[in-house]
């Protein structure tokens, strides 16, 4: 029997949100927070930890200077990334979608096989090909989010629906509105249409026709 898994996108989860997702306001009541999602803080130190890990991995690459220069907005992109993961996690919970560690491991194996091996996958991730650079360890966060999106699509019955991305986007928008999202203004403000900080040069979550549905691989 074929097992269906979600393909890795090192830029973001494999679904693009067509509907507005997040609205942001000050986190003045939460000192030390980069963002707050549903009352749960994403601390500035947590964001910095992700950034430091990426920078350390980039410095190990032969083209380190170019990689670092090309990801000058890494800190704010990381805030985007961590907030998105939290919103997807809340939406998955609301739909009864539970992703196991084994599922993530299987998706990782598939992603490595398709990339040409673990080293090739890690290289692709840290290079930030088309988006947010990630360390080899952070790849699992994207894989888990992809699997959650796929599970949500299955629960909504929109896995093969051409409008599936829009419907999932609406659910994520409703989830974000219900739980509440606050953004520290030092990282910019949210653009509801782009689902991104408007100060970013390029949103990490892209809006191309190709990405309007969950991306899956048969394996």
Explain this structure.
The chain is mostly helical. It has 7 helices and 7 strands. The strands form 3 sheets. The protein has a 3-stranded antiparallel beta sheet with strand order 3-2-4. Strands 1-7 form a two-stranded antiparallel sheet. Helix 3 crosses helix 7 (164-179). It starts with a strand and ends with a strand. The model is unreliable at 1-23 and 200-219 (pLDDT under 50).
Task: Give the amount of beta strand, in percent.
Answer: 5-15%
- How many beta-strand segments? 7
CA gyration radius, whole angstroms: 17 Å
Shape: globular
Give me the secondary-structure category: mainly alpha
Strand count, sense and barrel status of the largest sheet are: 3 strands, antiparallel
- Strand order, main sheet: write it out: 3-2-4
Question: Which regions have little confidence, pLDDT < 50, spanning 5+ residues?
Answer: 1-23, 200-219
Helix-strand topology string: EEEHHHHHHHEEEE
Number of helices: 7
Helical fraction equals: 40-55%
The first-to-last residue Cα distance is 9 Å
Let me know the average pLDDT.
78
Key features of this structure:
219 residues; 3-stranded antiparallel sheet; disordered N terminus; two-stranded antiparallel ribbon
